[in-house]
Amino acid sequence: MQNDVKYILITGATSGFGEATAIEFSKMGWNIIVTGRRNDRLRQLKENLIKKYKNDVITLNFDIRNQNEVIHAIQSLSEDVKRKTHVLVNNAGLASGRSPIDEGNVEDWEQMIDTNIKGLLYITKEVIPIFKNNKSGHIINISSIAGKENYQDGNVYCASKHAVDSLSNSMRIDLLKHGIKVTNIAPGAANTEFSIVRYKGDLNKVNATYEGYLPLVAQDIAETIYFVCSRPKHVTINDLVIMPSAQANATLFNKL
Ligand code: NDP
Ligand code: 8X3
User: Fold this and answer.
1) Cα–ligand 2 centroid distance for 252 (angstroms)
2) Is residue 199 annotated as part of the catalytic site, yes or no?
3) Is any ligand 2 atom within 6 A of the Cβ of residue 250?
4) DSSP state of 118
5) How far is 183 from 136, CA to CA, in rounded Å?
C-alpha cells in the first residue's frame, strides 16, 4: 500500500464503466474505493487489483437507494482515507424496462429514480463535507445522451438522466466557492451490462441494441474519466458528450 497516493471513489464498480474505471485508475497508480451491491464481484476486483497494481483497494458493499447504508459506508472510511480522497465518480445507475409512458411499470420508474437521482444525491451529500474539509475535490457525474435528448419509450430513464445533467450544473454553481470541480459525462450507446439490466435478460433485445455498428466499450469511458481527472488544477471539463462514431444523436445510427 502506498500511503501518500490519492483515492478515487467510484460508485457501481461491479461491472461496466465503473469496473473499467477502477482498473484504469489502479493501473495509473491511484488508490481505489469501489461500491456496488454484488459483494462477490467487489471482492474479486479487489483481489485482482491488489495482486496486479499493489495500490490500496477499499470495497463498500451497499445499495445506493438506501440512505442509511450510504451514510454508514462513507462514515466507515478512516480520516486518513477521507483526507486523500480527491474524486467521486457518480456512476451507479440503470435503465429498467423500456415502454411508452402510458404502459410504464411503477416499480421500474421507482428503481430508476431512486438509483439514478436519489442515490446520486445521497452519496454526494456525504462526500461534499470531505471535499470541503480538503478544500478541493472533483465530482464526476455519469449522465447520458439520454440526459441531453429524449427518445421513444425512454421517458423515465431520460428524465432521470436529465436530472443528473441538471444536478451537475447546479453542483458546479453551488460548490464553486469550495474549490470543487464538477464534470458531467454523457455517453452514447456502450456495450456493458446496461442493456441486460434494461431488458431483464432478453438477449434478443440486448443483441439488437448493439447490432450493425461498433458501440462504445467501458474502457472508452474509463480513459475519458482519467483524462478529465488528469487536467491541471486550473482546468475543469464541465460537460462532455462521448458517442460511438456510428451514432449521431440519441436515435440516429449508421448501421451496416
Ligand atoms: P452496468 O450495468 O454494467 O453497471 C451499472 C453499475 O451500477 C453496476 O456496478 C451496479 O452494481 C451499479 N448499481 C446499479 N444499481 C445499484 C444500486 N441500487 N446500488 C448500488 N449500485 C448499483 O452499466 P454501465 O456501466 O453501462 O452503467 C454505468 C452508468 O452509465 C449508469 O449510470 C448508466 O445509466 C450510464 N450510462 C450507460 C450507457 C450505456 O450505454 N451503457 C450510456 C450512457 C450512460 P450492482 O448491480 O452490483 O449494485
Ligand atoms: C444509455 C444510452 O441511449 O440507451 O444511457 O439511453 S441510451
Assistant:
1) 12
2) no
3) yes
4) I
5) 14
Report how far apart, in Å, the C-alpha atoms of 176 and of each of 9, 186, 231, 240 are.
20, 21, 17, 19
Other Cβ atoms less than 10 A from the Cβ of 110: the count is: 14
Instruction: Name all domains of the chain by residue range, CATH numbers in brackets.
Output: 7-242 (3.40.50.720)
112 C-beta closer than 6 A to ligand 2:
no
Compute the distance from residue 3 Cα to the ligand 1 centre, in Å: 30
pTM above 0.85, yes or no: yes
Burial category of 151 from C-beta neighbours within 10 Å (exposed 0-12, middle 13-18, buried 19 and up):
middle
Element (H, E) at 224: helix 218-229
Mean pLDDT by 10 residues, the chain (256 residues): 83 99 98 98 98 97 99 98 98 98 98 99 99 98 99 98 99 98 99 98 98 98 98 98 98 97
